[in-house]
Write a sequence for this structure.
């Protein structure tokens, strides 16, 4: 079985995002970029399934600009067999990303697609669900535990009410939550080895999908700031302050 | 004029309070009508609750045995079909809505507006990106159906004085059998629900252990609060996952939020930005949580919490 993994490059989660004063975007020049944390988890899960003998091949997919190569090499260094780079200069919407993945699925025929539950730049949380809909296959979102056996995935999902377990026939789409696993670190020799692994480059425009985005972002703003409050010196003062606000 | 379909969230025969928050966002669009759709094997009790929400024009019920559990793959085709004639489809931005709404959107051939914070117009909304560190205004093409999830912390629950009619709807669509419900392990708690509670007390890594977390529960019970946690506390096994507050946990807006032994990482803060009053108790006076706390107290939580209880 092949596993396709979403491997998006985003602004690193430690970066303090600044909105441009003119409201046209956020500052990304010179900012550290990394793999979306949920996608590192997706790749880790795929690698573990390969190590268990459930899968033979793990393919990382990045949709983005020409300079995505170094990012995809990281995925290969972590252990993916090969990478697919769908090249486009424009930011893609979750629907376009889902349509792109569907095209790759038609070609690669994977048994499983693992994506992050959300990209931490757009925080959309849509692509996996959309892909599953377009593919007409099961979705197991917010996965905290995955078991694959007998052509089925048994997935425990982190939901508001607690932990939900569902069973999905393969092929299926899984999206990862943070507690699914702890991604491995990339080792230096693996970076060398990754240089020899193949990266297929495909132009988004050649896939024949409708990539029009009917949602336009017209303005970026910094969030409303909470003003700095007061410090109290002990428990008695805290209780008094809360009583004064009518909160106790 | 807009016609809005709101997807009801429910569990064990009870309507989830997030539904009335999604209705508030629908009201802000100033539509011609707001219909709530309840998909269930036995929708009557939930529909009766939904019918009371102010602003609702009518409640549509889809009763099918397959709807016994909220499985997106099964619900989405029914909703996509029922959505014909509606300009907007709204769902709460809970794990239920986040799982389901994008699947509906894709079937309708549109992208989704996630986590709507405010309505600027029938096709214009504000939403957070980058863990709430930027707020964008988006315009949806007027020819497309608007599928959106509603950030529950940004909207009050609509009141329940209404009496909308309830209509049974037959949705003729084949449903897949490829996805099956196995079980749901619910955290059993008599405490106020985290997402609806007026007061929330959260513990972080500073609490130190699962056993120590009792001190958080005890204090919360004393003031009638719901209990939350940071990701570090959940990861360390001090408490179950459904208690996590933040970017990837629950986004909440209680009147009072008390962060105890929590440093204040941006991913945590994004979950509490809309709280009325934020109180921080932390032994490190430099902890970032103090930059946004309304009331801060530097000290050892194991000393302060018993003192607080005694002072109440
Ligand atoms: C993609 C992504 C998503 C994330 N999503 C979330 C999320 O949804 N929610 C979330 O919370 N985090 C999230 N995180 C993790 C986040 O970055 C932080 O790691 C986490 O919030 C830290 O939790 P903490 O404050 O409990 O622990 P720490 O940062 O370790 O802080 C513990 C605090 O306790 C204090 N302390 C220790 N002992 C005592 C004592 N005896 N008395 C008083 N104070 C004491 C310390 O001074 C310290 O400030 C996410 C991270 C990533 C990368
Ligand atoms: N441009 C992209 N390149 C690779 N994977 C992507 C891309 N966009 C979305 N994905 C995948 O879809 C997941 C969810 O993204 P989103 O719906 O944007 O929150 C991500 O974690 C990725 O796994």
């Amino acid at each position: 079985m092949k596993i396709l993994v979403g491997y998006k490059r985003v602004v690193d989660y430690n970066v303090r995002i600044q909105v441009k004063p003119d409201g046209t975007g956020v500052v990304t020049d010179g900012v550290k970029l990394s793999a979306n944390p949920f996608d590192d988890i997706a790749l880790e899960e795929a690698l573990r399934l390969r190590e268990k003998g459930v899968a033979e091949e793990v393919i990382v997919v990045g949709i983005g600009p020409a300079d995505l190569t170094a990012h995809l090499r990281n995925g290969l260094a972590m252990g993916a067999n090969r990478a697919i780079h769908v090249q486009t200069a424009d930011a893609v919407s979750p629907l376009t990303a889902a349509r792109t993945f569907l095209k790759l699925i038609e070609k690669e025929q994977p048994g499983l697609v693992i994506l992050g539950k959300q990209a931490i730049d757009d925080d959309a949380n849509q692509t996996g669900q959309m892909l599953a809909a377009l593919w007409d296959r099961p979705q197991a979102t917010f996965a905290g535990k995955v078991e694959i056996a007998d052509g089925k995935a048994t997935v425990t999902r982190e939901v508001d009410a607690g932990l939900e377990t569902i069973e999905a026939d393969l092929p299926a789409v899984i999206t990862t939550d943070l507690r699914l696993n702890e991604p491995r670190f990339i080792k230096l020799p693996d970076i060398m080895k990754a240089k020899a692994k193949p990266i297929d480059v495909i132009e988004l425009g050649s896939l024949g999908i409708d990539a029009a985005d009917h949602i336009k972002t017209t303005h970026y703003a910094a969030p409303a700031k909470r003003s700095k409050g007061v410090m109290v010196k002990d428990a008695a003062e805290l209780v008094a302050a809360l009583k004064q606000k009518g909160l106790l | 004029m807009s016609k809005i379909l709101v997807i009801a969230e429910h569990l064990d025969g009870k309507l989830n309070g997030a539904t009335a928050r999604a209705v508030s966002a629908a009201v802000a669009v100033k539509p011609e009508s707001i219909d709530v759709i309840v998909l269930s094997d036995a929708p009557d009790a939930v529909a009766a609750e939904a019918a009371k929400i102010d602003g609702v024009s009518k409640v549509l019920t889809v009763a099918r045995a397959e709807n016994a559990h909220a499985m997106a793959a099964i619900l989405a085709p029914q909703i996509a079909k029922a959505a014909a004639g509606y300009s907007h489809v709204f769902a709460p931005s809970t794990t239920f809505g986040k799982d389901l709404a994008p699947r509906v959107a894709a079937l309708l051939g549109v992208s989704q507006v996630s986590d709507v914070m405010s309505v600027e117009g029938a096709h214009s909304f504000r939403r957070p990106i980058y863990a709430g560190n930027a707020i964008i205004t988006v315009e949806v093409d007027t020819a497309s159906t608007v599928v959106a999830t509603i950030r529950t912390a940004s909207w009050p629950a609509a009141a329940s004085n209404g009496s909308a009619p309830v209509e049974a709807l037959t949705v003729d669509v084949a449903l897949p059998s490829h996805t099956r419900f196995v079980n749901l392990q619910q955290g059993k708690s008599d405490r106020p629900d985290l997402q609806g509670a007026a007061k929330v007390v959260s513990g972080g890594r500073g609490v130190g252990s699962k056993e120590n977390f009792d001190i958080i529960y005890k204090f919360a019970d004393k003031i009638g609060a719901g209990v939350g946690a940071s990701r570090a506390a959940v990861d360390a096994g001090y408490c179950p996952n459904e208690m996590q507050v933040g970017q990837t946990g629950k986004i909440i807006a209680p009147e009072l939020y008390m962060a105890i032994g929590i440093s204040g990482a941006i991913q945590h803060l994004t979950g509490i930005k809309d709280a009325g009053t934020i109180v921080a108790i932390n032994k490190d006076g430099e902890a970032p949580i103090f930059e946004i706390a309304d009331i801060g107290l530097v000290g050892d939580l194991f000393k302060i919490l018993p003192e607080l209880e005694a002072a109440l």
The longest helix of chain A spans residues 37-51. Chain A touches chain B through 82 residues (CB under 8 Å). The helical segments of chain A are 37-51, 69-78, 94-108, 127-135, 188-194, 235-244.
